[in-house]
């Protein structure tokens, strides 16, 4: 793990931010904390960060505002953002993901799960594999250059939409994709279909993946994610 990776935790509850800071520093990350939007923006102007952990409710604004600021700032626009919040309703999660967050963790959270999500999102943002067109996880291999998918060395045939869904999920293991975001990324934002169209394609994809289908996890009321390979 790259010990130079730096994370800014934006959280107004000091006990929570200190817990996260301590646990992540134990794993070699450089961690700063901010208690509100104002201090977070000041730190972003002074430092370089590889990731942001953001609470939804802050004293001087919202985590959604913070997320949009990070996405508009040229120096931070591609950095992973994980919401860490007590707002746990499906609509809250969808709003957070649609605002530009890469992942969403609800309080109370398991610190080991948070660490795994941090690793997964940083790994996606900074891939170490020289061949960025190939992905291998849980016995499923995907080669974007050849448009080829194999399950335990056996080539399987997917429809274009099934293939595109699998590419998006395997590129970001551990990251939750809402049905709406999958539709936009695959079909475009000018196509008007129901969210359930993704479920229909997912049935076909899982059938073809057979025993490996279990590694595509359904997040109830939201969408799907590919199981992180830890």
Describe this structure in words.
The protein is globular. The chain is of the alpha/beta class and 230 residues long. Helices cover 40% and strands 23% of the residues. The strands form 4 sheets. Strands 2-1-3-6-7 form a 5-stranded parallel beta sheet, sandwiched between helices. It has a 4-stranded antiparallel beta sheet with strand order 8-9-10-11, covered by helices on one side. Strands 12-14-13 form a 3-stranded antiparallel beta sheet. 34% of the residues are buried. The chain folds into 2 domains: 6-125, Response regulator (Rossmann fold); 134-226, Arc Repressor Mutant, subunit A (Orthogonal Bundle), CATH 1.10.10.10. It is built from 8 helices and 14 strands.
Brief account:
The protein is α/β, with parallel strands linked by helices and about 230 residues long. The chain contains 8 helices and 14 strands. The two termini are about 15 Å apart.
Broad structural category: alpha/beta
What order do the helices and strands follow? EHEHEEEHEHEHEEEEHEHHEE
Q: What spatial order of strands do you see in the largest sheet? A: 2-1-3-6-7
Largest sheet: 5 strands, parallel
Amino- and carboxy-terminal Cα gap: 13 Å
Number of helices: 8
Total beta strands: 14
CATH architecture of the largest domain: 3-Layer(aba) Sandwich
* CATH topology heading of the largest domain: Rossmann fold
CATH class of the largest domain: Alpha Beta
